[in-house]
Design brief:
This protein is mainly α. It has helices at residues 10-34, 52-59, 62-75, 79-87, 94-115, 126-157.
Length: 191
């Protein structure tokens, strides 16, 4: 069995482990919050028309609209930070990271919305999917690029994978001489 050691050291492993633990904790909380049965006398119909729920929230007045829309944005927003943290990469394209994070956030939101179809008192709302995904994107854009650049700057002084950067995109290892390359003598072909 070949054990692969991270060139980043134990700090990155702890960072990733913390990200995974926080991510799982947040997902458990969101699952408990969104997938518990509600004891209500009536249930609204599912909202499958984009922005209809947001327009209805805006019609309730500014304070209620901010509360409801804010709840939709904030529910899964921590995923915009926790998903890249669990990945633990410092050297990644900001756009690729954003695309991966938003795609994962929208899939998680869609899974929650689909799971709500089987929970009494809960209904599917396409606007929740849109707001949750927007919250993930906003949190990612506001926190992750700045955090990564600060971590890269701090890591430059230490070791880690950034001490071996060649062109800024791919890490490389400096090769040390290990002697001459062994050669194999010619072997004849069997009759």
């Amino acid at each position: 069995m070949h054990v692969r050691h991270s060139p980043d050291g134990p700090a990155v492993i702890r960072f990733r482990a913390a990200g995974v633990l926080l991510l799982l904790t947040h997902l458990l909380f969101v699952g408990w919050l969104t997938l518990r049965p509600l004891d209500v006398p009536w249930v609204m119909a599912a909202n499958l028309q984009p922005f209809a729920g947001i327009r209805a929230d805006l019609a309730l007045g500014p304070a209620e609209a901010v509360r409801r829309i804010g709840e939709g944005l904030v529910l899964l927003a921590p995923l915009g930070i926790l998903l890249p943290m669990a990945g633990g990469r410092l050297l990644v394209s900001p756009w690729a990271s954003l695309a991966r994070t938003v795609a994962a956030g929208s899939l998680i939101s869609m899974a929650i919305e689909l799971a709500q179809t089987g929970v009494p008192g809960q209904v599917v709302d396409v606007d929740s999917l849109l707001l949750n995904t927007a919250g993930v994107a906003l949190a990612h854009l506001l926190v992750v690029p700045l955090s990564r650049s600060r971590l890269r700057r701090g890591n430059r002084a230490g070791a880690g994978d950034l001490s071996r950067i060649g062109n800024g995109t791919r890490p490389y290892r400096s090769e040390t001489s290990q002697g001459s390359t062994p050669t194999i003598t010619r072997v004849g072909i069997a009759p």
